[in-house]
Each structure stands twice: as C-alpha cells, then as structure tokens.
Amino acid sequence: xxxxxxxxxxxxxxxxxxxxxxxxxxxxxxxxxxxxxxxxxxxxxxxxxxxxxxxxxxxxxxxxxxxxxxxxxxxxxxxxxxxxxxxxxxxxxxxxxxxxxxxxxxxxxxxxxxxxxxxxxxxxxxxxxxxxxxxxxxxxxxxxxxxxxxxxxxxxxxxxxxxxxxxxxxxxxxxxxxxxxxxxxxxxxxxxxxxxxxxxxxxxxxxxxxxxxxxxxxxxxxxxxxxxxxxxxxxxxxxxxxxxxxxxxxxxxxxxxxxxxxxxxxxxxxxxxxxxxxxxxxxxxxxxxxxxxxxxxxxxxxxxxxxxxxxxxxxxxxxxxxxxxxxxxxxxxxxxxxxxxxxxxxxxxxxxxxxxxxxxxxxxxxxxxxxxxxxxxxxxxxxxxxxxxxxxxxxxxxxxxxxxxxxxxxxxxxxxxxxxxxxxxxxxxxxxxxxxxxxxxxxxxxxxxxxxxx
Length: 454
Prior knowledge:
seven-stranded parallel β-sheet; 17 strands; alpha/beta; six-stranded parallel β-sheet
C-alpha cells in the first residue's frame, strides 16, 4: 500500500494519523502475505516522521506542490519502484488531489482508495471511496458506484492503541458507577497543529469559570507552534493545568478524562470509542458537518466556529454538560453505538474484496451451488437445516433460472467465491439470499457481494 498524505502546521496532522490506523490494519490483515506500507509525503514534521518509522512504516519524501503534475509523477515513480511484482493499492488522503490526479493513478494500473471528508470535488475517480464522518451517507459522490463507497463512522479509522483500549466493545450501556456526578478532569486536544492556538483560548475560558477546581490536561502535537506559550500559561496556574507534548499513550489520557474539548475532526471517533463525553469546536470547513451532526444526534455539544468564540456561551454549555450526569451517560452510550472500533478492519476487507465481480448464474453452476448449499455451516444457517438431495436441488435451480422474478448472480474473484439471489414479490419487495463459498469465508466478501448485487 502506498499512502499519499501530508501533515503541517497549516493542514494539521489528522490525515497522517488516520492513515497510520489504516496502515496498521492493512499490515495486520496481510501479515501472511507481506503487507508493506509506504507513506509518500511532500510535508511532514520530523517528529511525525520518526513516529511512522518507529512503527515500521516506510517514508518517502517528494518535493512538489500537493496535487500538481510533478507530485503525480514522483508518486507514481515511487510506486513503480516499491511495488514491482505486487498487486498494490494507492491511497490518497488530502484535499489537493483532483479527479484528474485520481484518474491518472488508475490509468497507470493501480487500484485507488480515495479518502474524503466533505464531497468538495465535482467529480471523483476511485476503486473505493471512504468518508468516515457522521452524515456522510447524505452525500452524492459523482464518478463511482455506490457499491464502492464506504460512508459513515462504521468505517472510522482507529489506531491499534485505541482498538486495544476499548473496554467491552460490544457493551451498549456505560458503567454508571464510573461516571462522576460532576466533572473533575478535563482534557483539551485541538489536533497536532492547532494553528489558531485554540488550546489557549479554551484554557482562558475555563479558568474564568467561578467556583471550579477541575484539573485540566492539554495535549499538544508535533506540529504545534504554540507550545512555549502554553507552558507559560500552565506555570501561572499551579496545579490546574498540565501541558503534555507528543503523548504516546493517548487512550490512557482519554480514559482519565471526565469530559473532553476537542476539534471536530478524527479525534472525535477516538474519544467516542472510549466513551468520553465531548464538546467540539469547528476549526475547518470539513469539520462543520461533523460538529452539527454530533450535536443534532445528542452525541456531543457543538461550541461553534473558532473565530466566533463566545466565552459566555462556552462556559454555559460546559457547565450544563458537566453538571448533568445523565446527559454525559447518554453521550457515552450513543458514541459507542456510533463507533465500534472495527472501521479500519472493514475498510481493509472491502479493499481485499475489491476484485470480486458478479455474473449471471449459468446452467453448469448447479453442481457447485449444490455443494455449497450442503456445506454443514450453510445448512446450519438456513431455514431448513436438512441436507438437500441432488434431484430436489436440480429441479429448484431450473425453476429459479426460468422464473422472471428471480435473479441469481455468481461472485467471482480468481474463482467463484459466493452467490447472491434476489426473489421479487408482487407487493414491491425482494428477499435476498446469500452464500459464501466455504473456503472463502472470513474475508468480508459477503458485504461486497450484497453491495454489488444491489
């Protein structure tokens, strides 16, 4: 996998950090086939590059304006050298890669995953498109099939450290006993760059709330230019503020917090997965929809745009959330329902299943489908669990093939891997029946087959 993404003070570090999560999942899923990952970057803070290399990712630097023809040329040259003899993917995560850039990658013979946040281009060209944000299902992307679009927080990319730190991932109810009556510990995290120094503004607002004694921890990233300013502010407020730079164990820090104030970006999904109530600030256009949807769905409280900051409104919202244990419990429960931690795995499975195509069933498929139908696991998952005699299957299959209200499609990759059938009813709905070949289970093919069938 070749990942083309950047990080800097102006664009932040979110693109790189979520690609780190995808790279981890890719390597985990493909360990048995040598799933290497290389980052290609035109801008990358030294601390972040060191982080990638420490986590065993390769890093290549290019010197070109993001999205330019020279950028494309250098990226394809690196891909050609590094992926010879393999069946590679290129991943684009950034707002400078136009449809022409995307098309050129696909025309060069590479499969392409495009990561998007707010449908900002008039056209797209991709094999798979990912938008992990809440409300992404409302967008209408032009240039690719709906079956190839992964939309919503079900595909949120969480790094391994967060996935491993999720307590009882399947649980739907928060532990009431672990939630304090009022907030005592506040986490402030405004991304890896925080170009507008929102961390300071948040601290100033919190410190002016009368009769409060809560403890505050502020996270600053490798690209933050305001570190010294924040250190000085912390020194002037003994015991109340702790400024932490380049934190290695973010899950532990998030679990420490009773509430978090954060930019409305990818960090939201990490906090929600760990059941931390949120107040979100909009720092960029791609975050506006996230903040509004989270507030609308009562998952977080939206503090609005950074340049419209209102001390009184922020204090009022903070006090309202911090004083209501039930509201915070509701946020925690809704957040876990939204983000279950398996998004990166789902994306990798979709990419792995991308080679699947459907064809109409033929008469000579009858024997293969009979064998699949009588597999013990298939029978156990069927309405009728009894073994199916050949003559009964043959008559059933011939009837389905001749029935205008039925459609049977065989899913193939390098070989047949599954079947999906649609039986239409007169009252306007259809029943979908799916079977994955016994030797093709566990790779996420079922989802892909249903998508293609639809």
